[in-house]
Design brief:
- It is an enzyme of class 2 (transferase).
- The protein is of the alpha/beta class.
- The chain is built from 18 helices and 19 strands.
- 39% of the residues lie in helices and 21% in strands.
- Strands 15-16-14-13-17-18-19 form a seven-stranded mixed sheet, with helices on both faces. The chain has a six-stranded mixed sheet with strand order 3-2-1-6-12-11.
- The protein binds adenosine-5'-diphosphate and 6-deoxy-beta-L-fructofuranose.
- The site of 6-deoxy-beta-L-fructofuranose has 14 residues, from helix 10.
């Protein structure tokens, strides 16, 4: 009988249920369900609709049942840094505010009063991003101290969904490191740091590694979806899963996990937390088997997503790429990592204003706007490649681009030109694949990550651009 494994991968822009199974020695994927994810405004804050997302998780499970494809195991990954605080009855305290919300404004100073940036980076290896969980928790402490008083558990978003499915609360390592509260050396919660910040240490429960069994479905979930299933922890941070599925045959490679964010970096068994890496804002996120993802967050295709939404989705992403290509010689460039692009009221107006302020031609057409973004992204990738090579002292021959953004052919071409590197494109569903690989390693389909990566290499077509 065919054995299926189910990855539920929820990015900031969309989620999907992907079944994986072995077929003639190749990993085969079937997307059974896809749904949108959007930020919502709640009590004047940008929030996630967790209820709606959980309903979508259940909807996709029901489709597996309808198709009579009952997975042996399943696991959920999502974007990082966001979390819930649960009270004694397992209920969420307050709204689930999203990382793009402005509640963290000024929280870096509050944290900075208690611990220096250098010290924080040394302890955690995590880059300073104003939306890191540490700053979000500081905002909760300032604005809603009662939530922290009442909280019994701290869970990251995928942990919370696993809890709703199984009734078990289980914090996963790769995503926990993005809180900036995990110690780089001990690879466990940094309780001293929590004391320093006056965060209640008892809400941060034991951290578990990918491949841990969370449990089986609760009775009410079995009744609703029509089957039981074992929940196995993948790398619950989507980027952690994506990097697992990079089909490189070489030890040293640069990846670009391209989606709402562009995450560019390397995988390493040792962290990079020198003054140089701190100055250039490289992070060391925790990975499978305690690997590190030393990478940089670049604003990414969020900017294109915003424009598409503003245009009421009149253009597809392919069309936006095509229009950008037609406006290829439009000369203006943006600092894509500028704060102003994190959550603007109007991305179109913000880009126009940025060009005006920097005395550059103001984009007028959709093509000019998109060209401006794609060119600026490609240029920032090139700068990052140089920084990575300086950081590691290694010259890399190629870059692997994975994720939904690897569909953007025009951006891939610009990246090849700007970096002068060989570009390997795909797989598009790297995150879901990485999620599946861990479940399949747990079930002994693969005996190691090397084995699993090799299977990805043979199973999916990888396009090469020179
Ligand atoms: P996330 O997981 O962060 O939600 P994805 O990895 O699904 O994001 O990538 C979504 C992005 O990929 C879109 O915002 C879009 O810019 C880009 N994209 C997807 N399909 C295409 C396409 N056919 N052409 C160009 N860009 C695309
Ligand atoms: C990408 C991602 C990224 C984080 C950001 C919050 O989806 O997980 O790795 O930095 O979202």
């Amino acid at each position: 009988m065919q054995k299926y494994y189910l990855a539920i991968d929820i990015g900031a822009s969309s989620g999907r249920h992907v079944l994986g199974y072995m077929n003639n020695g190749k990993l085969t994927l079937e997307e059974v369900y896809r749904f949108e994810n959007n930020l919502i405004k709640q009590n004047k804050h940008l929030c996630w609709d967790l209820k709606g997302l959980f309903q979508e998780i259940v909807n996709g499970l029901k489709i597996c049942k309808k198709q009579n494809r009952i997975p042996t195991s399943m696991g959920i990954d999502t974007w990082a840094v966001d979390f819930v605080l649960l009270d004694k009855d397992g209920q969420i305290l307050g709204d689930t505010v999203a990382y793009r919300d402005s509640r963290t404004n000024g929280m870096d100073r509050k944290v900075g009063d208690l611990i220096s940036l250098e010290s924080l980076y040394q302890r955690t290896g995590i880059q300073k991003l104003n939306f890191n969980t540490i700053y979000q928790l500081m905002a909760v402490k300032q604005n809603h101290p009662k939530y922290l008083d009442k909280a019994k558990d701290f869970l990251m978003i995928p942990d919370y969904f696993h809890y709703l499915l199984t009734g078990n609360k289980c914090v996963e390592y790769t995503n926990a490191t993005t809180t900036q509260l995990v110690n780089l050396k001990t690879k466990d919660w940094d309780y001293e740091l929590m004391d320093l910040l006056e965060f209640p240490r008892d809400i941060f429960k034991a951290i578990h590694m990918p491949m841990t069994v969370v449990g089986s479905f609760r009775k009410d979930i079995i009744d609703e979806v029509g089957f039981d299933c074992q929940v196995v922890l993948p790398a619950t941070h989507d980027t952690g899963s994506a990097v697992l599925a990079v089909p490189s045959k070489q030890e040293d490679f640069i990846y670009l996990s391209s989606g709402t964010w562009s995450l560019m970096g390397i995988e390493s068994m040792k962290p990079y937390n020198s003054a140089y890496s701190m100055e250039h804002n490289f992070t060391n996120e925790g990975g499978f088997e305690y690997r590190y993802r030393c990478l940089k967050n670049i604003m990414g295709l969020w900017m294109v997503q915003c424009i598409r939404r503003e245009l009421k989705s009149k253009c597809t992403y392919e069309e936006l790429c095509q229009l950008a290509k037609e406006a290829d010689d439009f000369p203006s460039r943006l600092d894509v990592n500028a704060e102003v692009f994190l959550a603007p009221e109007s991305m179109i107006q913000e880009i126009k204003y940025y060009c005006k302020k920097t005395n550059q031609p103001i984009p007028v057409t959709i093509g000019e706007l998109a060209a401006c973004i794609y060119h600026s992204l490609a240029e920032s990738y090139a700068v990052t490649v140089n920084e990575i090579e300086r950081l590691t002292g290694i010259t890399y021959s190629g870059i692997h681009i994975v994720g939904g953004g690897s569909n953007a052919g025009y951006l891939n071409e610009l990246t090849a030109k700007a970096t002068g590197k060989e570009i390997y494109i795909g797989p598009v569903e790297a995150t879901a694949i990485g999620n599946l690989l861990v479940q399949m390693m747990k079930d002994n389909v693969f005996c190691s990550l090397k084995d699993a990566r090799e299977c990805v290499y043979h199973s999916f077509e990888i396009q090469k651009l020179i």
